[in-house]
Amino acid sequence: MSDVNGAIVQAHRDEWTRMVASLTRRFGNLDLAEEAAAEAFAAAVARWPADGVPPNPGAWLTTTANRKAIDWIRRENKRDDRHQEAQMMYDSAPHESIGVIEDDELRLIFVCCHPALAMEARVALTLRMIGGLTMPEIARAFLVPESTMGQRITRAKAKIKAARIPYRVPSAADLPRRVGGVLAVLFLIFNEGYLATGPDTGPVRADLTAEAIRLTRLVRALLPEDGEVAGLLALMLLTEARRTARISVDGELVPLDQQDRGAWDAGLIAEGHRLIRERLAAAAAGVAPGRYQILAAISAVHTSAGDIRDTDWSQVLALYDQLADIDPSPIISLNRTIAVAEIEGPEVALATVDRLEPGLNGYHAFHATRADLLRRLGRSHDAVAAYDRAIELAGNTAETANLTRRRDQLQ
pLDDT tens-digit profile of 174-197? Predict the structure, then answer.
């Protein structure tokens, strides 16, 4: 039974996005696509324990989902022309022309990121539909309760239905207006893979980071002159380059200052740096960098240093100041304090962090940062309390292990 359950979980990770995307392309209805895909997995849960896992789980699920969709159409649209129904049943041709985007998953991301929806609704809906993320994972990404996120997604789907927003393939002219939401989705998918927020998965999900990078490369091919697309790709590559050095053999998160830099992927770093140099040339020509380009530049400073002691913290701080001008979020301010601590000392950094408390009290990284600064100031009792709170909030198993060890060293 455990093998079957494992096969279903793996199939969900591997096939959900592709199934919803292909079903939407074929039937032109996102609600129908999601419902049919969910029913296909429910059928697998019911039948695979008795029948065994099929040789090709993806094909079985896709066939079952298509049949479920057709059954739904038969029930709901009995007045439709039977010839059209038969064509939908037996013709696997796409519902509409592929247009400028050939990849099913990427096409659906652009479709969900419709400008008629608020940006947060676009991102949340797309993550739910095709990002492979669960509702709790999406809620943690937005730092809101799961119930709140569920309501946002429900409202977004209702608006799509009420406004009769078509599931058209976006034209080339539509792409620039939708790319902001698309990049936000890809960034959050990558982040969930980079440091999984739930305790029921591995600490790092290479499947998500690889898919996010693949799709971002496709977006860059579509919009090669877009600086933020290039910046996001560079950020992903430079972050992915450190993946194998980030988790110890004991399953504990290894902080940046303790990582074996010889284990970083030199090829990915070189590619990321090359993209950033291209964007620096554009900045020199008067094109102001955006959020992802600045984040990538910060990552480039870190990956350029052969040793943590060689890090140019003044440049990191200057880049965070530049980022804060266009994205004055408390999380950016929190991350900035890492550079402040290196330049002005942990006491100054702690004062900055404490001013952020009202907005970040439920964010584990806030308490982890406070704990580290308190430890450096010799305030062990306060540091232990901050570590306790960070451990309580953290969902990533590797991060929890690291925080627990650091806390226990103070007791």
Answer: 888 889 888 988 998 898 889 887
Query: Can you give the C-alpha Rg of the chain in angstroms?
Result: 23
Using alpha carbons, select from 101, 127, 94 the residue that is nearest to residue 24: 94
How does DSSP classify residue 377?
A: T
What length does the chain have?
411
In this prediction the pTM is: 0.81
Contacts of 403 (CB under 8 A, 6+ apart): 368, 371, 387, 390, 391, 394
The answer to whether residues 88 and 74 touch, using CB atoms and an 8 Å cutoff, is: no
Distance CA 388, CA 97 (A): 55
Q: What is the DSSP string of 154-210?
A: HHHHHHHHHTT---PPPPTTTHHHHHHHHHHHHHHHHHHHHS--STTS-SS-HHHHH
- Decide if 223 contacts 214 (C-beta within 8 A): no
- Under DSSP, is residue 19 helix (H, G, I), strand (E, B) or coil? helix
CA-to-CA distance for 228 and 383, rounded, in angstroms? 38
Cβ proximity of 30 and 160 under 8 Å: yes
**Which of 232, 302, 226, 301 is CA-nearest to residue 261?**
302
Nearest to 243 by CA among 273, 209, 293: 209
175-194 vs 206-222: helix crossing angle, rounded to 10? 160
pLDDT band at 100 (very low <50, low <70, confident <90, very high): low
Measure the CA–CA gap between 323 and 293, rounded to whole angstroms. Answer: 9
Q: Which two tokens stand for residue 198?
A: 């739930």
On the 0-12 / 13-18 / 19+ scale of CB atoms within 10 A, 197 is: buried
Residue 132 confidence (pLDDT): 59
| pLDDT for 82 beyond 60 | no
Give the CA distances from residue 379 to residues 106, 108, 232, 276, 342, in Å, rounded to whole numbers and listed in that order: 49, 51, 38, 40, 18
- What phi and psi, each to the nearest 5 degrees, are found at residue 201? -130, 175
